[in-house]
Amino acid sequence: MTEQPLMIVSSSPHLHDKSSTANIMWHVSLALVPATLWGIYLFGLYSLVIILVSIGSAVLAEFLLGKLSKECTIWDGSAFLTGLLVGLNMTPSVPLFIPIVASIFAIFVAKWTFGGLGANWANPALSGRIFVFFSFTTYMSSFTTPRTLLKAMPDALGGATPLGFVKTAIASGSSGMTSNELLAQAGYPATELARKLCAVLGINAYTIDSFLGNIAGSIGEVSSILLLIGGIYLLIRKIITWHIPVTYLLSSAVLTWIFGGLPAGLGMFHGAFFPSMLSGGLMFGALFMATDYVTSPLSSKGKAVFGIGCGFFTFLFRTFGSMPEAVSVSILMMNIITPTIDRYIRPRKFGDKKLFAKKEAVA
Amino acid sequence: MHAVPTFRKGGVHPPDHKVFSREQEIVRLPLPSELVVALSQHMGAPAKPLKAKGDTVERGEKIGESVGFISADVHSPVNGTIKEIKTVTLPNSVQCDAFVITVDEKQPGDASKPIDWRKLKKEELFASIKEHGIVGLGGATFPAHVKFTVPRDKKVEYFVVNGVECEPYLTSDYRLMMEKGKETLEGILIAAKILEAEKIIVGVELNKQDAIDHLKEIVKEKGWPIEVVGLKVKYPQGDEKQLLKAAINREIPSGKLPLDVGAVVSNIGTCYAIYEAIVYKKSLYERIISVTGEGIVNPKNILAPIGTKVSDLLEFCGGLQGDVEKLVSGGPMMGFAFFDTETPVTKGSSGILALHARKKVRRTPCISCGKCVDACPIGLMPTLLYKHITNLNYEVAMNSLSLLDCKECGSCSYVCPAHLPLVHTFKTGKKMGRKK
Ligand code: SF4
Ligand code: SF4
Q1: Which of B364, B376, B405, B420 is the best substitution to test chain A (most A C-beta atoms within 10 A)?
Q2: Which of B241, B315, B379 sits opposite A348 (nearest CB)?
Q3: Distance from first CA to last CA of chain A, Å, rounded?
Q4: Do residues A286 and A334 share a domain?
Q5: Are strands B226-231 and B199-205 parallel, antiparallel or unpaired?
Q6: pLDDT tens digit sequence for B314-365
């Protein structure tokens, strides 16, 4: 041995898989690309402007706050992702100050006042959305008719909130008109593909259209199929686990199926669970909002409980409540409960007989 | 077809990196001119030196005597002279005394007549193992005679042999199975005789299919009562707890030993050492070491005397190449990084790795992704442990989060996207927590 290079001495393990925080944030952003592009196509270039403004203000806010604490954290991608999520949650015609307010609220209030990345208890993007929704409700609930629907029927009822519309449609089932007839008046099914699927599967037109993404809504949450593709991508990359989305969607669907018909006087087991699963941002919430690492439980069991909780509240607010934003508020409520879930629901310890670790929990 | 067995909870799949030395047959290291034989080769109390400066020693002669219950004898690997006794630091930061032995030119020949171990009684076999300083060669170096002492109220239903070698890079056990399969299996039979084991299972991961086939063939031909089981590849299957779960579906509760679930686990290399000790009366003074990694010019599996300096091993392998950043003793998941190439190998050195610099990733705060929780095979919450230890809450970490059950397998650190030094923190936390 002639000369010896300097060696690093550090603790084991000396290997690491390829993941990193930044990597994960960029992958999640990537998974949102299909839904984003579709939203821009549906609602026009102004949507792109909204999204860019959201991202820009989120990143800028993160950068400025970083200056204060003398650390630069924009490289980790989390501010970008928050901005993107905020943008996708805007309605297509909001004035630009709204996404700016939402992004700044998300980064400044929801994230940084609690200590920055990893320390916040509420999902920042979600908090931003809820904040602007309740501050500027009119803007946030005026929807634009999607391009595909316009083509099919120029005078479509774009303004009606999608879910409210279905509630009416279902109720009409008992009042003479079939829901498909009513839907046809509003322009559904919107495209040739939707028409075909509708005929083949025999599912109501609105459901098909919300699955494909021909409905009014926030920029990023109209097309369930594209969101699903993004979600499956994240599952395959092992960035999220199935626990939250599956339990969330299933529990809300089952509850809606059992009890969802009650307000319309249809009795038990008559709830229209399909439309409720595919619209109003449930898919978006289940795949991209509820799965936010920081604000969801750590263990798989905890995640399942979290998902069921979200599903329950979503069902409750949608079916019996008059509160808009059922999905967002449900997830936020479960965010609050997350630390408690983590305290009591822990993985079974190797060698323990009991299913749940029974230790006086201190977190 | 039933599913290929493995343990259920947690675990990770690091790339196995075994290509470097997998096909390299075991070669004997030409005797170095000097050896540094440490007196703490094993878990437990260091051995008491039996020689002084200037004394001559013979190969196989006992030069360190075990002290206390958990300890093991140390033998000289060569004929030579004690040059001095000095303090050395081993890669695992243990400091102890070591004999520096100047190796004689002339060494005794190898051949000694094999003994038929079947004629020996259980007690004689047991005594022999202790006398020859056999310790677990998987890395934990637990003295074999202590492990093989079965209390009267316990019985060994299963003797499970660990041929898993789940650590990436390492190939010494694989080579052993391929080249010394028959001897190793015989060693297993000897051990099973001492333990009066009812059943013998050898667990090998499926990335060593040829070794599995090879062993199965020998077993079949000889009609030995040994079952060779292929296990699905998953780290850390080589750990006692995970191996027993995989092989016999029993879980060792916290703080208990394999014997408490009716099993004894031994590394496959240990069984070979037992074979040599009994059949050739050979003390444990040499072992197979994988010297490998992308930073080694010619990776090899080397049969080297205990006390060989790492520099001699590296030289034998053509030295280092490329941007070597770390030298590791043992596997990359649990091994210890060290910097001094004068460090000697011990009974526990399964490998010496030279690793290239890896892409540096910036650390972020914990993002609560839960990946560490999913990866932990013991069912701990590494992220909470980390938070409490960094907040100096040792009590909470030890009591309600079971810090002491962490076996430092590294699965959590391996997956953590925030690149937090989880295992490092747990090691420190244990030390600090115990002090209190
Ligand atoms: S190092 Fe400890 S905490 Fe981490 S995965 Fe292994 S046993 Fe669990
Ligand atoms: S893997 Fe790392 S970032 Fe994820 S929860 Fe565990 S400690 Fe936190």
Answers
A1: B364
A2: B379
A3: 52
A4: yes
A5: parallel
A6: 999 999 998 899 999 999 999 999 988 899 999 989 999 999 988 888 889 9
